[in-house]
Amino acid sequence: MRKTADIGIGYRATAEVRRLFPKKKHAIIAIGCGKNVLYEWSCGIAPSAIYLQRLHELGADVIWILTGKRG
Predict the structure, then answer these.
(1) pLDDT, tens digit, for every residue of 4-26?
(2) From start to end of 1-71, where are the E strands?
């Protein structure tokens, strides 16, 4: 079962991935996911906690992804 409490989370995760990795293949390698995962985020499905952790480690603003507010 997928959690989609805030569909904006997936859209913001996609935006951060694009900011960090202009090429999708580099994002897939760095995050350690399949291209289907990135596609799901672009459709608004929220990333799982493990992917949020990986994004944080790669320099993404996870607080913004989760809340929509820049700190």
Answers:
(1) 455 599 999 999 999 999 999 99
(2) none
- What's the half-sphere exposure (Cβ side, CA atoms, 13 Å) at 23? 4
Do residues 42 and 11 lie in contact, with contact meaning Cβ atoms separated by under 8 Å?
Answer: yes
| Closest by CA position to 52, among listed 3, 20, 19, 10 | 10
Helix %, strand %, coil % for the chain, to 5?
60, 0, 40
| Residue 16 and residue 63 in contact, taking contact as beta carbons nearer than 8 Å | no
Query: How many Å apart are CA 25 and CA 2, to the nearest integer?
Result: 24
Two tokens at 46? 């929220």
Instruction: Quote the DSSP letter at residue 22.
Output: S
pTM metric for this prediction = 0.86
Tokens at residue 51, please?
């992917």
